[in-house]
Amino acid sequence: MSGPVAKENRAAVIILNWNGARFLREYLPSVVRHTPSDIADVIVADNGSTDGSLEVLRDEFPQVKRIEFSENHGFAEGYNLAVGRVRADYKYTVLLNSDVKVDDDWLTPMWRFMESHPEAGALQPKLLSLITPTEFEYAGAMGGFLDRNGYPYCRGRIFDTVETDKGQYDTPMEVMWASGASLMVDNELYLRLGGLDREFFAHMEEIDLCWRIRLAGRQVWAIPESHVYHLGGGSLPASNPKKTYLNFRNNLLMLHKNLPACVRTKRLLWRRILDAMAWCKFIAGFDLKNASAVLKAHRDYRRMCRLYDRCDAKVDLLDGEVNILTEYFMKGHKRFSDLQK
Length: 341
Prior knowledge:
alpha/beta, Spore Coat Polysaccharide Biosynthesis Protein SpsA, Chain A
């Protein structure tokens, strides 16, 4: 740094906590140690914990600022309220999961990029696995995209295939979406767009936010100079019917919210056909719980889509050149670099 950073340009690193005293003890020390105090403050927003988390913070991390909520507002709304609390004192916020470990100066490259690229509305670092640090982490790897049917995939992860990090994606890149495990946002933009959609509950809420950021004319980036290690998969395993339900429901909601009217009906009809094929696959495998989750997702989507005003987007941001199902299952393209070929 050439000099002190103006208060209005600083960042808040906010960790949302709910009954995560164990995670605080295990991962917060690295965040405190490696977050440069000249550009950022570490803040824990506690979502009405009852496991002694606040006592852990007061006794073991007195240097960490706190936001205390009297009740659990959930993931999305908890972050929305926390960002609203800090907007007057910080230009940026990093939404950091409680199961993330950092080393070196992980934040400065992201902060510098945001400062020098006013067109950027959000970005993420390189996301590596805490369990296997040589591999990318499933939740976002090196930045994400959406194919022509709305299926997400990443630089470094397509479906269940996670790549080893060999530096193959070590260039900054504009992406469609950035991972919510470590998501840096412009506070004014985040709040103006309504933040994370609390109706999603969990899964794809950060993709929906990034889509809205891009529709607002701003960019989303992945910055490899910064890297963090994410435990991930802590709440729901991939085969859990609740995760199936949330992924199917929220993907439909996201398409409904953000696709322009001229293509929305056609794209959603095709997605319903693809989802019906997925339902048939679950039935054929006698996986009745996940099959039921798909049906429930579609039923609740039809009810919930009425909560949203019609999108007036003028551009379709899905990648019309990529059908990730065909690339992965028929062509055998398991890596992002295979798609580029």
